[in-house]
Amino acid sequence: MKPLILAKFDVKPRIVQLPDGALMGFFVRTVADAQEVAAYSSRDGGCSWKGPDKLFPLPSEPGVWGGTECLVDRDGEVHVFLLNDAWSGVFREVSSEAEKRRLRPRERALDIWHVKSARRGRSWREPRRIWEGYTGALNSVIQMRSGRILLPFSFLTRRTWEQRGEGLDAFWFVGAFESTLVYSDDAGETWHESPDAVKVQTPDIGGAYGACEPVVLELADGRVWMLIRTQLGRFYESFSPDGARWSQPGPSRLINSDSPAGLCRLRDGRIVLLWNCCLRFPYAYGGRHVLHAAVSADDGATWRGCREVARDPLRGEPPPPHGDHGTAYPFPTALADGSAIFSTGQGEGRIAIVRLDPDWLCETQQADDFSNGLDEWSVFGTRGVDLVPHPDRKGAQALRIHRCDGEFPATAVWNFPLGARGRVDVQMRLLSPGFGGAAIMLTDHFSVPFDPEDELNALYVLRIGSGGKLPDGTTLSADTSHEVSLRWDCATRDCRAVVNGRTAAVLPLLRTGEGVCYLRLRSTAASAGEAGLLVESVQADVGAAGRS
Questions:
Q1: Cα 449 to Cα 414: distance, rounded to the nearest angstrom
Q2: What is residue 463's three-state secondary structure?
């Protein structure tokens, strides 16, 4: 079953499942100038929600509160982790001079505080500060099989380009942020900071942070895996034998924009990963237009899926001039029935609670004939991409891609299950008069439809020249239905382009990738007014027999 949006909220709650099966979504709110922790609740797997209800008040003396992360421990007690700005103005400006003198706020503070329930949520202890400094967000908390609780986070240092540090740090820039964690071996009574801080190099000396917003997961062999947000186009990863000491980080195989991951282990032992597999957009070094999910049955050695599970509902509009936007910051929770639920989204009108069936990620086939419109496609930021009546089938639609504006490209982007081996079949027609050319691309990540470098970063590219000329010199006739089948194998590093049952080209693998999960169709007409193409249907198959 496809991902299902269960609810939309103005705030993004952190959802946990209690021992009795109920779901609770925690967040901080302000009521009559006082702050408190409140929660939504659901007893039907997130299909309906009640509340929000007040759980406990927050004292005003330490500063302004914000941000939450939650854990239900093995004893059924709930741990709520909060951020407090120590009156530094991160969450709210300190206005009057008298207030500033009285409060003596620290510069740029976001301390971490901890609140634990008693009697399984029937009462709450007083908040306690467990770390002092500046962290931007909390994105993950787990309890290991040993009982140790791990709360990873990143923290701001005083590092600048002018004061880069010593050793290897002096030769490049690792940003102002490092990643670490605090851990507790006594159910949250005392906390200790890891002696190892994880650093990652950055692509520039300006807006790049370095290693930030880590998430962690315990692996089957007892090691703990940390996935670290970077600005390098992929996650970096670090490993720990015990959750306290951490290895030097290195690049993972997971393509990612400058955005945090979401990780959870399902009841059957599989791992679900949520992330923004997006590149080449200025915001967040790749963008957050779509959120992807994959599932692994071998502790992250291989992944299936890489399917879009959420899209920015406002992606058709230009991005706002200020503030975060898109669908990102996923917080997944594994449910007792084997599924997962997650919250995602940033900015007004973008926050949603989504239910995910992990078996949907393991499907090997996907098809679209546009009977549901363009729901599965990304066409924003383009012109000349629209649905028109099918020329032969009454009541059916087809996708027309033609360059009608000299400034805007005409491109359509479609996601399907990831496969190192498989095929995509495109039933299409070249329009007349004067077909201006097209590019059919297969790739392993999302980029915006108007990406000018999509062809340079694709895995395989079939170009159809103006007038319908194929790489082997033959010509496709206009206004006639043709089947173009791309059959790839990343192991043999090739892709056979089969047109109407005949091999028209053997395309080389242009760069190494884990597999194919995206089809991009673009008009390559040199000028507006040249005819484009009409796509009648598409079908992808990444199963065992998919490439035949």
A1: 10
A2: strand
Neighbouring C-beta atoms of residue 17, cutoff 10 Å: 18
How far apart CA 27 and CA 15 sit, in angstroms, is 9
pTM: 0.95
Class of domain 366-541: mainly beta
d(CA 86, CA 134): 10
Q: Facing residues of 153 across strands?
A: 180
Cα 220 to Cα 217: distance, rounded to the nearest angstrom: 10
Of 197, 201, 236, nearest to 215 by C-alpha is 236
Q: Is the dihedral of CA 192, 116, 329, 368 positive or negative?
A: positive
**What count of residues does the chain have?**
548
CA atoms 491, 494, 499, 501: torsion sign: negative
Segment holding 502, helix H or strand E: strand 502-508
Tokens matching residue 371 = 């009977």
β-partners of residue 308 are 292
- 110 Cβ neighbours under 8 A, 6+ residues apart: 67, 83, 84, 85, 86, 88, 90, 133, 134, 135, 136
Q: Kindly report, residue by residue over 9-36, the tens digit of the pLDDT.
A: 999 999 999 999 999 999 999 999 899 9
**Partners of 30 in the beta sheet?**
35
Instruction: List beta partners, residue 155.
Output: 178
CA distance 357 to 185: 34
**Each residue of 76-114: pLDDT tens digit?**
999 999 999 999 988 877 665 656 555 666 788 999 999
- C-alpha to C-alpha distance for 365 and 16, rounded to whole angstroms: 32
Residue 498: other Cβ atoms inside 10 A: 17
